[in-house]
């Protein structure tokens, strides 16, 4: 009997310590740094992904059950038949439009005939948002306003060199540009005005592969929520730890947190907000979000 009990304990421990959450490199790393640094729990491992395809491949193959993804990416994957569900949203503010000191900005129309750089490729959250607002303002993305893509570090370097005048970026890359420019638009406030909701956007959240049991999902939720709370209560230490992992100067990272909001909200509590966001994007920019996910997208 003792031997059986020991085996069960070992299996249980292996199960707990085997929980892995894929998490993007960048600002979304900040709220999970307490987990990575052993400040919160040893029950969950954080594995970094550098592009959504890498995360999706591991989820589809069953190698990993959990991933932090942009909500728009998750919705598009769900529409393509990838059986994932949104467990909760925890990233609400991060995107801003910056302009060089010698570049004017007086609303979207002032971008006509201009170039705007944004990170990675087409379909990322800030790209979809920008195309949405441009279209609503009567501008044709890629025709009236040229949208160019590059890694965020490269955009910052080009901005500092005076070769980029406008950039739609997430923090902390926004803060890296402010010695040569200024924030001219808050995407979160813009969305709030458009939708008649608080000035925040369901940017990224925790997704799970369909079929994972409720106890496991709850455990990961608890650890992620606890990590965010630890981050808020120990902000200076979190910034220091994040600075080391991201390779970003402490001062820049600390300043960027003035424009970032992390708060874990279970999908059942923010479903209406997420649904409204996705519906609006689908209505005015279907190329960025071809289909609004059904009820199965939300983990109950």
Q: How is this structure best described in words?
A:
The protein is of the alpha/beta class and 300 residues long. Helices cover 43% and strands 22% of the residues. The strands form 3 sheets. The chain has a 6-stranded mixed β-sheet with strand order 2-1-3-10-4-11, with helices on both faces. The longest helix is centred in the last third of the chain and has 20 residues. The protein is globular. The N terminus is likely disordered.
Name a few traits of the molecule.
300 residues; 6-stranded mixed sheet; 3-stranded antiparallel sheet; globular; disordered N terminus
* Mean pLDDT across all amino acids: 90
Structural class: alpha/beta
Poorly predicted ranges (pLDDT <50, ≥5 residues)? 1-17
Order of helices and strands: HEHEHEHEEEHEHEHEHEHHHEH
Radius of gyration: 20 Å
Determine the oligomeric state from the structure. single chain
Give a quick account of the main beta sheet: strands, pairing sense, barrel closure.
6 strands, mixed
Beta-strand content estimate: 15-25%
Task: Give a count of the beta strands, DSSP E runs of length 2 or more.
Answer: 11
Helix content: 40-55%
* 3D shape: globular
Distance between the termini: 38 Å
What's the SSE blueprint?
Blueprint: H1 2-17, E1 19-24, H2 33-36, E2 44-49, H3 52-60, E3 66-70, H4 71-79, E4 84-93, E5 95-100, E6 115-119, H5 125-136, E7 146-150, H6 152-160, E8 166-170, H7 173-177, E9 181-186, H8 187-195, E10 204-209, H9 214-233, H10 235-246, H11 250-256, E11 261-266, H12 267-284
Parallel strand pairs: 1-2, 1-3, 6-7
Antiparallel strand pairs: 3-10, 4-10, 4-11, 5-8, 5-9
């Amino acid at each position: 009997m003792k031997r059986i009990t020991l085996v069960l304990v070992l299996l249980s421990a292996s199960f707990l310590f085997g929980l892995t959450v894929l998490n993007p490199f960048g600002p979304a790393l900040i709220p999970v740094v307490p987990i990575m640094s052993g400040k919160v729990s040893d029950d969950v491992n954080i594995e970094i992904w550098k592009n959504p395809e890498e995360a999706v491949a591991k989820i589809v193959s069953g190698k990993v059950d959990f991933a932090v993804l942009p909500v728009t990416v998750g919705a598009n994957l769900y529409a393509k038949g990838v059986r994932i569900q949104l467990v909760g949203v925890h990233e609400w503010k991060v995107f801003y439009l910056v302009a060089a000191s010698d570049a004017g900005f007086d609303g979207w129309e002032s971008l006509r005939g201009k170039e705007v750089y944004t990170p990675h490729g087409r379909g990322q959250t800030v790209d979809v948002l920008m195309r949405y607002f441009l279209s609503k303002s009567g501008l044709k993305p890629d025709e009236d306003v040229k949208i160019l893509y590059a890694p965020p570090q490269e955009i910052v370097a080009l901005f500092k060199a005076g070769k980029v005048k406008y950039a739609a970026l997430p923090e902390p890359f926004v803060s890296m540009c402010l010695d040569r420019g200024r924030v001219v638009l808050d995407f979160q406030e813009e969305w709030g005005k458009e939708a008649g909701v608080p000035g925040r956007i369901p940017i990224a959240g925790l997704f799970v592969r369909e079929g994972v049991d409720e106890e496991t999902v709850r455990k990961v939720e608890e650890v992620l929520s606890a990590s965010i709370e630890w981050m808020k209560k120990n902000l200076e230490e979190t910034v220091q730890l994040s600075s080391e992992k991201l390779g970003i100067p402490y001062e820049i990272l600390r300043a960027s947190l003035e424009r970032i909001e992390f708060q874990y909200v279970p999908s059942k509590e923010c479903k209406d907000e997420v649904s409204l966001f996705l519906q609006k994007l689908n209505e005015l920019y279907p190329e960025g979000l071809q289909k609004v996910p059904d009820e199965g997208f939300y983990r109950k």
